[in-house]
């Protein structure tokens, strides 16, 4: 009698995650932005910003079905912490299998500081974003970036995916301008053609103090 091999847990989770992502993308393209989950190549490049030799707090915005989360895990030092923020419960549920080490945070990036404070997290060393910035109006971009700089350590790094087909759109241009107003250093990667759609990364450091006030730490 022949037995059909069953897919591994990780493979099955990725398939369920992709199906969930596509259903959500069809329902809410403005909030998802991409037409497929972030590619493994892009995910590894973003995760490469995490030093495996340091205990870091890593925050992921728009965790989706965990394409970036899965790449983050192998980069984490033993006492590092990974907080995956996602506003869609159906997408967040997939992370339980894809990234069991991560703290799954249901919430909006506009409330990032408050959501982290509820978990006694007051500073992030790395913030990774796969949010569809080119779909957001300028005021929303600014509000989210203010939250990012509110929690980002002075020597921290913020990285965001930018989809190449929208790079000339007014909202995409506004996002680039806001990044340069928000950070002292903004580096743009070459086009990553393996992603769907093709994408670039903005890697930003040295948050400028005018963009956000530090959130208070726990009471002494």
Structure description:
By secondary structure, this protein is of the alpha/beta class. It is 36% helix and 22% strand. The chain has helices at 9-27, 29-32, 40-47, 67-72, 89-98, 112-117, 138-151, 170-182; strands at residues 57-61, 81-86, 103-106, 124-129, 152-163, 183-188, 199-207. The protein has a 7-stranded mixed β-sheet, sandwiched between helices. Helix 5 (89-98) links the parallel strand 2 and strand 3.
Return residue spans where pLDDT drops below 50 for at least 5 consecutive residues. Answer: 1-9, 13-35, 211-220
Main sheet properties: 7 strands, mixed
- Give the structural class: alpha/beta
Order the strands across the largest sheet as they lie in space.
Answer: 3-2-1-4-5-7-6
Question: Radius of gyration, rounded?
Answer: 17 Å
What is the average per-residue confidence, as pLDDT, rounded to a whole number? Answer: 82
Distance between the termini: 68 Å
Q: What is the β-strand count?
A: 7
What level of helicity do the residues show?
A: 25-40%
| Outline | globular
Total helical elements? 8
